[in-house]
Amino acid sequence: MTQASRMTAGTLSAAAAEQPVAVIDNPHGCSPILLICEHASNHLPARYGTLGLGPAERESHIAWDPGALGVAQELSRLIDAPLIHATVSRLVLDLNREPSAPDSIWTLSERTTIPGNLDLDETERATRVREVYEAFHGAVDAFADARLAAGQLGAVVSIHSFTPVYRDVQRPWQIGLIFDRDERYARSVAAGLKQDPALVVGMNEPYSPADRVFHTLERHAVRRGLPPLMIEIRNDLIRTQDGQASWAQRLAPLLREGARTL
To answer: Helix (H, G, I), strand (E, B), or coil: what is residue 225?
Structure first.
């Protein structure tokens, strides 16, 4: 990716910094859609060590959304949309939660204890909020406000992935569309997806705003009066580049067409 097609924003402090918290791909894209991928990375900055976790745990879904960044980057290319993605694992701080929420910094994710997050003092919590949450969302706010002022922002879409099994229960959906009161974009994309009878499309499944997973879209879409859409793709379907490309190609025309009707 050329320097002109990528921007960086929101860096960690000098002591913690290894790379920016927020990276903006295709910042000059012509699409009115802003793509966001909060759980794009399982990277732990050096100051956090391993948080007491082994390699398998740090590669698992508790650390990030496997495949989501690949789908988001391919969508950015296909529909010529800017994409803002995070470079820090949600094990440090979950960017899709209010920083005051009890699950903003996980101590137990499903069945895995995160030792490095136990018994954090208020100073450490405040440092993570400042260096990770505020850096990332501040970068999104600045970018979204500039696009909106220029008449270049019409919708915000966040890209995620979910596990095929949760707490020993199989999930039947290949894809889920998460939305709140404004259903327009979700209903439009769902209508296109349901043209394929082999697809099981979850509407507010496997999560819904009641699960407190809508924070990013509440902050960056709803508060600006923009249509929000959260897309969840089952992660076994997008573990490879081919899978990521296939799902991006499926979604691109639906997102593009849906945005025209909003």
So the answer is: coil
